[in-house]
Amino acid sequence: MTEIARGLEGVKFAQTRLSKVDGQAGQLTIGGYPLEALAPNACFEEVLFLLWNDRLPGSAELNALKHDLAARRALPMAAGAVLREAAARKLPIMDALRMGIDTIGLCSDEPHPAGQVDVGCAVALVAHMPTVAAAYWRLLHGLEPIDARPDLDHAANYLYMLDGREPHPEAARALETYFNTVVDHGMNASTFTARVITSTRSDIVSAIVGAIGALKGPLHGGAPGPALDMVFEIRARAARSGDSVAQEADRWVRETIESGGRIMGFGHRVYKVRDPRADVLGLAAQRMFSVTGESRLYEDARVVEEVALRVLEELKPGRNLKTNVEFYTALVLHGIGLEVAMFTPTFAVGRVGGWTAHVLEQVRDDRLIRPDAEYVGATGRAWVPADRR
Amino acid sequence: MTEIARGLEGVKFAQTRLSKVDGQAGQLTIGGYPLEALAPNACFEEVLFLLWNDRLPGSAELNALKHDLAARRALPMAAGAVLREAAARKLPIMDALRMGIDTIGLCSDEPHPAGQVDVGCAVALVAHMPTVAAAYWRLLHGLEPIDARPDLDHAANYLYMLDGREPHPEAARALETYFNTVVDHGMNASTFTARVITSTRSDIVSAIVGAIGALKGPLHGGAPGPALDMVFEIRARAARSGDSVAQEADRWVRETIESGGRIMGFGHRVYKVRDPRADVLGLAAQRMFSVTGESRLYEDARVVEEVALRVLEELKPGRNLKTNVEFYTALVLHGIGLEVAMFTPTFAVGRVGGWTAHVLEQVRDDRLIRPDAEYVGATGRAWVPADRR
User: Fold this and answer.
1) What is the CATH number of the domain that holds A52?
2) Coil/strand/helix, residue A195
3) What is the ipTM of this complex?
4) Contacts of residue A219 in chain B, CB cutoff 8 Å?
5) Which of A138, A165, A166, B350 is the most exposed place for a label (fewest CB within 10 A)?
6) The whole model's pTM is what?
7) Does some domain include residue A12?
8) Which of A326, A334, A358, A361 is catalytic?
9) B244-299: per-residue pLDDT in tens?
């Protein structure tokens, strides 16, 4: 009667065709494709089309979507003023992203009628996310925003808007692989937020703004920064001591665990045998670093990873703490040239593909999401006026 | 295994001390008080204090909260620009409310640490809601926003900011009773949205912005407008035909039901014997109209209600379609002088009291809310490059 499904863990509320997280097998399926087949091969626009249409686009469809996205990249008018004031107040990037996207407002005049879908609004939202993130990052650093380049694809243009230079193709490819890897991941809190808002027949901008707000929370948006800090700190110690990175990594991991600390970038709530996203991003990092010339960092990270896995197995046997998505996210995004403060906003730039697809799926489902709670407060209190309390 | 709790109906995910909806008994408890004891007696600031602290304030505490709210009413700087552009685009009021509140940004620099609560942010959010709603309503009508009056209480100042006139005390009292009546109502979709966002340890502004987006949806924010339209249409017919309002109401209700239409303002998903909010608002309407001089409209509405209840019982026996909150909401808000377009935004101005209280409760609970979904899509699709699709 009063059984409580705390946090709704394990409670299924709907059906989805978008992604499947199989923790026991260590597999992630996105739009029917194993992550390993999709993420390194597809451009981000292909994955967007896949999630919105449940099939990959033909060449003409792909070009049309690329063109459509490129045509909707300009910063919304009101967003400029909002972002400048946010920068003056030094607000966190995720807040500015939420505010900036919020100003887009409705794409059409009315809340969606039951069961109807406007994919154009989804395109506009996906197109605007990198523009707002990059513009705010520059304003925060005292720089003027850079206009989008319509000839560049989605990922490459994001990097271009950050520093005004056309990115190395391998950096853009690594970013696309990252976007594809994080674009959707079952029923996480931000995706669920977007679906709850949509379930009232509200609009897609409201849904995505809510999702950005949820992703901002540190229990969700993650903290890939510390995993990279660990690698850098171990390298610095090795440089000082003259010992190898492997020796310093061994010491660092033991010290951290023995003092009760947590090794960031290892272990996952669901994936117990492997996190498939770590493998995909590890390969993406290897490919990028071998071309862009920082392969020494990549090799050191691999050494740290191997040592950490070995020491974790020794000190926490049976816990199966495998490399998770955060470890290689940090390496890939750093290699692309992004600051740690841009990691979660860049996550949002990729994840909006999944959010919009879930909104479209929820529109078709058209069922209000409204759980219950157990009331444990007082009842029957008698009113007493303020002067007699 | 794959049982799906569609819409999470009846699934309890947490405990709450804030409100209890007892549909079988037709009772609503808010902060331990029966609605009938609280809503007509308390000022809105007392109810806010009650929800945030689980007890009514003493006189000094009440004055301190009133002062605190009054001091935080000014329109946030960036909101002005956003609202002006929204007005130029004629965006719906709920969108402008969401955008304007979004610009408040963080009240403190950091996401809340686990279990910590900053009530100051809740005060700021509640204080800003009427300012943003009133300012946008005026901009939409080509009028300049009116500065808040710190000497007026929350409800009276809202009405003052709409038209620059100090409201009749009975109008302010009726609005307060309305706010108190709708301030919280169990685990509805907007309240749940605020709790999901908070559960990631995100900030309270993100949570409230998400809640506004959810309330905007017509399945949630409701449609009190049509209930009033019905009364006006029946009156107009009576004026034309010379028949009584009761006779025209009888005809109108029969025609509507026989042509498959729905009588707005009657029937509720949960309340089967009575909607306690309708009773409280009915009394508030009676009191206000008897003083402000439109008591004829009130009497006609009562007649329409009686006829509708009788005909509904005759044509849909056993369905127990009782007067719901929307019927008297429309009458009260119209009597106060609000346009129909302001009904849902005004609902939000009251409900933010409950949203903020739920955020504070969820912060203390500190449990990530993340349900599951059943995957029904394809698996094991093989990658084919675009030129071979």
Assistant:
1) 1.10.580.10
2) helix
3) 0.95
4) 199-201, 368
5) A165
6) 0.96
7) no
8) A326
9) 999 999 999 999 999 999 898 998 888 988 899 999 999 999 999 998 877 899 99
